[in-house]
Amino acid sequence: MLQKIADRKRKARLSRHTRLGHRGLALAGAGAALVTLVSGAPASAAGNGGCTNIQQGLGLLCARWDGQSHTYIDTIQGSFTSTLGVGNPRIHVRILDGQNREMFSRDRSWGGNRRDEVARFDVTVLMPRAASRVCASLYEGGGLVDTACAPVYF
Do residues 135 and 63 lie in contact, with contact meaning Cβ atoms separated by under 8 Å? Predict the structure, then answer.
């Protein structure tokens, strides 16, 4: 008797969790589109990246890098996408070593309210120590919004 009740409860729970209504399918499709948007880098890219949500999930801040080794990084990049926009944004992109010491940095700023910007920089020097991560910080009107980092590994 207890076994039958347990089986019925398990069946009801499984069918309730595996069913998707029309609304569920629409949300699943939107989620797949968002994943495709976020993971826009091709699988064969030599660099790596890391992203973080900004503005309560209405935007995305990313840091990316491309390189040959821990001491030879080709390019670094910081980018953001925002539904609300960011007023007078500035992106500060830097390469850090294992002790969080900055070895190379560049920044770019824009005027007005921006929704989607990319700051890409060529790295023109050999790193004095092994790079540990690349970080991009986003500032809005001089105040820090958030920071995204990507680990450097080969």
Answer: yes
pLDDT digits (tens, 9 = 90+) for 25-60: 333 443 433 333 343 433 333 468 999 999 999 999
Residue 124, exposed/middle/buried by CB under 10 A (0-12, 13-18, 19+)? exposed
Amino acid code (one letter) for 2: L
Q: Which amino acid, residue 126?
A: L
- Buried residues in 33-70 as b, exposed as e (16+ CB within 10 A): eeeeeeeeeeeeeebbbbbeebbeeebbbbbbbbbeeb
User: Are the CB atoms for 20 and 28 separated by under 8 Å?
Assistant: yes
Helix (H, G, I), strand (E, B) or coil at 55: coil
Whether 152 and 65 have beta carbons less than 8 Å apart is answered as yes
Q: Please tell me the distance from the alpha carbon of residue 95 to that of residue 132, in angstroms, as a whole number.
A: 8
Q: What is the pLDDT of residues 141-151, one digit of tens each?
A: 999 999 999 99
Instruction: Return d(Cα 112, Cα 71) in angstroms, integer.
Output: 36
Phi (first) and psi of residue 10, to 5 degrees: -65, -45
